[in-house]
Amino acid sequence: MLQEVYLIQEFIEGKDLTNEICPGKKFSEAEVIQLLRDVLEILVYVHDNKVIHRDIKPDNIMRRKDGKLVLIDFGAIKQINTTTAMKSGSTTRTIRISTPGYTPLEQAMGKPKFSSDIYALGMTVYQYY
User: Fold this and answer.
1) What DSSP string describes 43-81?
2) Is the dihedral of CA 64, 28, 34, 80 positive or negative?
3) What is the largest CA-CA distance in the chain?
4) Average pLDDT over residues 60-70
5) Residue 78's beta-bridge partner residues?
6) May I ask the CATH architecture of the domain 25-126?
7) Contact 21, 128 (CB under 8 A)
8) 127 or 117, greater pLDDT
9) Quick check: keyword Nucleotide-binding in the entry (predicted)?
């Protein structure tokens, strides 16, 4: 029996973070820390549900009209089998899905980890500071 999986995403009214990156404009340290806190809070939830996003970048972080950040585009997610991950200490090989400039080496080699999302977030906020 063939099973199909559908990913349904809520429409988020707002703009992605690429709209906030302007040549010569830098965020203050406090603004960067707040951005990190907001996205890390989302990643705690995502990772607690055994999912690696695998494509964190400004295009995939939306700022709603109320200012709250939302992580979008879960089309590249990797769900982790915790038993396998615990035994081997890493994930199994996957198809490489990434955006150059935001991708850590282990993900580029087809072995994403939860920390791969943290690296991508670091590369994202680096553009702001």
Assistant:
1) HHHHHHTTEE----SGGGEEEETTS-EEE--GGG-EE--
2) positive
3) 56
4) 94
5) 52
6) Orthogonal Bundle (1.10)
7) yes
8) 117
9) yes
- SS3 state at 16: strand
What is the CA 30 to chain-centroid distance, rounded? Answer: 21
For residue 96, the model assigns a pLDDT of 52
What pTM does this model have?
Answer: 0.76
97, with CB counted inside 10 A (0-12, 13-18, 19+), is middle
State the virtual CA torsion across 45, 19, 7, 120 in degrees, nearest 10: -50
Q: Tell me how far the alpha carbon of residue 8 is from its chain's centroid.
A: 17
Give the residue, 89 or 76, on which the prediction is more confident: 76
From 16, 55, 73, 117, active-site residue: 55
**55 part of the active site:** yes
